[in-house]
Amino acid sequence: MQANVAIQVLPHVNSDEEVIRIVDEVIAYIKSTGLNYYVGPSETAIEGDYDQLMEIVKNCQLVAVKAGAPKVSAYVKISFAPDGGVLTIEKKVTKHHQ
Which of 1, 5, 27, 79 is deepest in the core (most CB within 10 A)? Predict the structure, then answer.
Protein backbone atom coordinates (compact mmCIF):
# COMPACT_ATOMS: atom_id res chain seq x y z
CA MET A 1 0.00 0.00 0.00
CA GLN A 2 1.91 3.02 -1.23
CA ALA A 3 1.40 6.51 0.10
CA ASN A 4 3.08 9.79 0.74
CA VAL A 5 2.58 12.18 3.60
CA ALA A 6 3.45 15.79 4.20
CA ILE A 7 3.95 16.62 7.85
CA GLN A 8 4.38 19.96 9.56
CA VAL A 9 5.46 19.65 13.19
CA LEU A 10 4.91 22.73 15.34
CA PRO A 11 6.51 22.51 18.78
CA HIS A 12 4.95 24.82 21.37
CA VAL A 13 8.10 26.50 22.67
CA ASN A 14 9.17 30.04 23.51
CA SER A 15 11.60 30.93 20.73
CA ASP A 16 12.16 30.51 17.02
CA GLU A 17 15.57 29.03 17.78
CA GLU A 18 13.93 26.28 19.86
CA VAL A 19 11.39 25.60 17.11
CA ILE A 20 14.21 25.20 14.59
CA ARG A 21 16.28 23.00 16.91
CA ILE A 22 13.36 20.66 17.64
CA VAL A 23 12.18 20.50 14.03
CA ASP A 24 15.75 19.71 12.99
CA GLU A 25 15.65 16.71 15.34
CA VAL A 26 12.38 15.56 13.78
CA ILE A 27 13.89 15.88 10.30
CA ALA A 28 16.96 13.91 11.43
CA TYR A 29 14.60 11.17 12.61
CA ILE A 30 12.79 11.18 9.24
CA LYS A 31 16.16 10.97 7.47
CA SER A 32 17.13 7.99 9.66
CA THR A 33 14.15 5.97 8.37
CA GLY A 34 15.86 5.59 4.99
CA LEU A 35 12.71 6.59 3.10
CA ASN A 36 12.65 9.16 0.32
CA TYR A 37 11.80 12.57 1.77
CA TYR A 38 11.85 16.25 0.81
CA VAL A 39 12.20 19.13 3.25
CA GLY A 40 10.26 22.23 2.31
CA PRO A 41 9.96 25.53 4.16
CA SER A 42 6.74 24.57 5.95
CA GLU A 43 6.51 20.77 5.80
CA THR A 44 8.41 17.62 4.99
CA ALA A 45 7.11 15.10 2.45
CA ILE A 46 7.88 11.39 2.87
CA GLU A 47 7.15 8.44 0.55
CA GLY A 48 6.68 4.81 1.45
CA ASP A 49 4.39 2.11 2.73
CA TYR A 50 1.22 3.47 4.33
CA ASP A 51 1.59 1.64 7.65
CA GLN A 52 5.25 2.62 7.96
CA LEU A 53 4.39 6.27 7.25
CA MET A 54 1.69 6.29 9.92
CA GLU A 55 4.24 5.00 12.44
CA ILE A 56 6.66 7.74 11.37
CA VAL A 57 3.96 10.40 11.78
CA LYS A 58 3.35 9.16 15.33
CA ASN A 59 7.05 9.06 16.11
CA CYS A 60 7.59 12.61 14.86
CA GLN A 61 5.46 13.83 17.78
CA LEU A 62 7.41 11.68 20.24
CA VAL A 63 10.75 12.92 18.90
CA ALA A 64 9.63 16.55 19.32
CA VAL A 65 8.52 15.93 22.91
CA LYS A 66 11.74 14.07 23.73
CA ALA A 67 13.66 17.04 22.28
CA GLY A 68 11.98 19.36 24.78
CA ALA A 69 8.62 20.46 23.41
CA PRO A 70 6.02 20.31 26.18
CA LYS A 71 3.27 20.26 23.53
CA VAL A 72 3.24 19.63 19.78
CA SER A 73 0.79 20.38 17.00
CA ALA A 74 1.15 18.58 13.68
CA TYR A 75 -0.58 19.00 10.37
CA VAL A 76 -0.53 15.96 8.11
CA LYS A 77 -1.59 15.48 4.51
CA ILE A 78 -1.90 11.92 3.22
CA SER A 79 -2.01 10.68 -0.35
CA PHE A 80 -2.86 6.99 -0.38
CA ALA A 81 -3.21 4.51 -3.22
CA PRO A 82 -3.86 0.92 -2.07
CA ASP A 83 -2.92 -0.39 -5.52
CA GLY A 84 0.08 1.92 -6.03
CA GLY A 85 0.32 4.90 -8.29
CA VAL A 86 0.70 7.88 -5.94
CA LEU A 87 2.51 10.84 -7.44
CA THR A 88 6.10 10.80 -6.28
CA ILE A 89 8.02 13.70 -4.79
CA GLU A 90 10.23 13.65 -7.85
CA LYS A 91 7.28 14.03 -10.24
CA LYS A 92 5.84 16.85 -8.13
CA VAL A 93 8.85 19.10 -7.60
CA THR A 94 11.88 18.26 -9.77
CA LYS A 95 10.89 20.58 -12.61
CA HIS A 96 10.75 23.47 -10.14
CA HIS A 97 14.26 22.91 -8.75
CA GLN A 98 16.42 22.64 -11.85
Answer: 5
